[in-house]
From TrEMBL:
<dbReference type="InterPro" id="IPR036388">
    <property type="entry name" value="WH-like_DNA-bd_sf"/>
</dbReference>
<dbReference type="InterPro" id="IPR000524">
    <property type="entry name" value="Tscrpt_reg_HTH_GntR"/>
</dbReference>
<feature type="domain" description="HTH gntR-type">
    <location>
        <begin position="2"/>
        <end position="69"/>
    </location>
</feature>
<dbReference type="GO" id="GO:0045892">
    <property type="term" value="P:negative regulation of DNA-templated transcription"/>
</dbReference>
<dbReference type="Pfam" id="PF13377">
    <property type="entry name" value="Peripla_BP_3"/>
</dbReference>
<keyword id="KW-0805">Transcription regulation</keyword>
<dbReference type="InterPro" id="IPR028082">
    <property type="entry name" value="Peripla_BP_I"/>
</dbReference>
<dbReference type="InterPro" id="IPR036390">
    <property type="entry name" value="WH_DNA-bd_sf"/>
</dbReference>
<keyword id="KW-0238">DNA-binding</keyword>
<protein>
    <submittedName>
        <fullName>DNA-binding LacI/PurR family transcriptional regulator</fullName>
    </submittedName>
</protein>
<dbReference type="InterPro" id="IPR050679">
    <property type="entry name" value="Bact_HTH_transcr_reg"/>
</dbReference>
<dbReference type="GO" id="GO:0003677">
    <property type="term" value="F:DNA binding"/>
</dbReference>
<dbReference type="GO" id="GO:0003700">
    <property type="term" value="F:DNA-binding transcription factor activity"/>
</dbReference>
<dbReference type="Pfam" id="PF00392">
    <property type="entry name" value="GntR"/>
</dbReference>
<keyword id="KW-0804">Transcription</keyword>
<dbReference type="InterPro" id="IPR046335">
    <property type="entry name" value="LacI/GalR-like_sensor"/>
</dbReference>
Length: 370
């Protein structure tokens, strides 16, 4: 009798799935028990068979969802190997708002198709390695790393935990891993061209005191521009020490650095400032106001960041860089492509850079620093 009733439930659920759209949520187990007047075990057994066939996916605490797009049609034998059913997102605890926005978009998009997403934020890489050894494997993993070094051991472990691994925001060298990042040299060129067009001839690049590849790359490009471009009379790099989180303590670190460079009349030896890796525009503004620096009259400020992340510009700072939304979309695209064609060589996807000019760089000026 139980086998017969199980077959009836299974067939009726197949018909229900055929009528529903991809990502539609199924009734709960208790609702199915009442509808079909069967036991919990019978319903769960039927759901289990449909999950094995790739027609359903379940998320703990959220429910069971129909899977159609990219999966087998009703009646197929099993799930396809290129399906993205589970995703692990790892990020350092110092993540900025851009990282959180990327995560939120990916979670929202994948949840509509019933994919399971696990997010882990870590302080200590050694502790993270211990955690990863005890968790199950995933279809794919995203490692968000922007301004900190990535241990090779971590990458190796993640490659063993996921069929597709993509690094978000870091140009990792010497490893065969898919990457999505911003060409910060392009953003730097935009900032310097704009400032030069306004008449500035002295500029400082302010960044985190980090050896991360994106920051090193921009520093070298900045130095190279100073040697090769004769229009810049004074170019200097300022690295902010003691800033462990790009969204915290930026203003105080910047105040200390600028105070040491100001002359007796409170003037700086440069008329423009470009920042990289600092996601605290409020702290930057607070620092300048506290030092009595009138921006943009005394100092033009240009941010290298993400133009669709409000806290990086607060609607007042000129900014050049990429879009977090494009980054989130491209991460998912790269993962799906890797799952579908695992034999293709790893790729580096550079996000398109754009600039938005606001009041922090002001109008065209004559050079103000003698």
């Amino acid at each position: 009798m139980r086998a017969a009733s199980g077959n009836v439930v299974l067939n009726e659920l197949r018909e229900l799935i055929a009528r529903l759209d991809d990502g539609a949520r199924l009734p709960t187990v208790r609702e199915l028990m009442r509808t079909h007047r069967v036991s919990q075990a019978t319903v769960q057994e039927a759901l289990g068979q449909l999950r094995e066939a790739g027609l359903l996916t379940s998320q703990v605490g959220r429910g069971t969802y129909v899977v159609k797009n990219g999966a087998h049609a009703v009646g197929d034998d099993g799930p396809r190997g290129d399906r993205l059913e589970s995703l692990l997102i790892l990020s350092n605890a110092s993540l900025n708002e851009r990282c959180m926005l990327v995560q939120n978009h990916i979670v929202e998009e994948l949840s509509r198709s019933g994919s399971k997403v696990v997010q882990i934020s870590y302080h200590n890489t050694g502790h993270l390695l211990e955690i990863l050894t005890s968790i199950p494997n995933f279809d794919a993993a995203i490692l968000q790393s922007h301004y900190e070094s990535i241990p090779i051991r971590l990458l190796s472990l993640l490659q063993g935990k996921a069929r597709a691994l993509v690094v978000d925001g870091h140009t990792v060298s010497g490893v065969d891993i898919d990457r999505v990042g911003t060409d910060w040299e392009d953003a730097l060129d935009m900032a310097m061209a704009h400032l030069a067009g306004l008449g500035h001839r002295s500029v400082a690049l302010v960044s985190l005191d980090s050896m991360a590849q994106p920051i090193l790359t921009v520093r070298r490009a900045f130095d190279r521009a100073g040697r090769e471009n004769g229009q810049w009379r004074d170019m200097r790099t300022i690295m902010l020490g003691g800033v462990h989180n790009p969204t915290h303590s930026v203003g105080e670190a910047l105040r200390r650095a600028l105070s040491e460079l100001m002359d007796g009349e409170g003037r700086l030896p440069f008329s423009a400032m470009i920042t990289l890796g600092l996601s605290d525009s409020f702290g930057i503004r607070h620092c300048l106001d506290g030092l009595g620096i009138d921006w943009p009259r005394d100092l033009a400020v240009f941010i290298l960041g993400h133009h669709d992340v409000p806290t990086e510009h607060f609607g007042t700072m000129s900014i050049a860089g990429s879009s977090y939304l494009e980054g989130a979309r491209r991460l998912v695209e790269v993962i799906r492509r890797r799952l579908e064609t695992p034999e293709t060589p790893p790729q580096i996807v550079y996000l398109e850079c754009a600039q938005t000019i606001r009041e922090s760089t002001g109008e065209r000026v004559a050079e103000r620093v003698s």
